Amino acid sequence: MGGDTPGGRAFYALAMDHGRDSDGPGQRISFVSAGDVPVPPQGCWVPCFGTDDHVAAGRRALDLGARPAGTVPVDGRDQPVYSAPDGTLFGLTDVPGSRPHSQRLGDVAFVDLYTPLAEEAAAYYAETLSCHLIDEPAPSPGNYRLLVSADRPVAGVVDMLDVLPSAVPPHWIPFLRVLDLEAEVARLSDLGARVRVPATDSAMGPFAVLVDPFGVAFGLQTPVSDDLLRKYATIRR
After folding, report:
1. What is the pLDDT of residues 8-19, one digit of tens each?
2. Across the strands, what pairs with 94?
3. For helices 118-128 and 54-63, angle between their N-to-C axes, nearest 10 degrees
4. Out of 52, 107, 144, 162, which residue is the most buried by the measure of CB atoms under 10 Å away?
């Protein structure tokens, strides 16, 4: 959202083949102008979570301390955006029943929230999105929390102060599904991305974090993480 939209479209079309038909199954990236939504000059990611009733979820979001932050177009309709208590933005939409789950390469496989208020933010999103919260589902550096809905992984919450300077604002990072992690990191670097975290093994599967040419961070992960996330989503504590 925001930033250099034509440049962003071009980069991600080359990087992840996001120029193909967006009406197919799977979770894709949309590029929208910020409009009245307050975003950094370089833009930011705003995940739009599907719910059974986005109006009721929106009321919960506001009752729990969020503020209205404008709208963004999703599937041809304007959907509300909220500013959570930690300052991150998120959207809500009704679950598109006709769009089946997909694990194809190039899709958004998962999203993580990096915030200095990890415990509070995890509790906030769990209640807003009617999710179950799993604290540290697997050994990892820092504290990691997993939001789960009906045994389906929804999002992760990372204690940002464990891995980033305190001056960095809270932000979302989408993880795009790739097959050859190291090869994709090298290819995207050639396209102008900077590497924040090189290809790294973890309990959640191998991943990398990059920054696109416009200063917005995004991640890469392999299909191995799909199976591991579903495994951890079944844990009950």
Report:
1. 778 888 777 644
2. 51
3. 140
4. 144
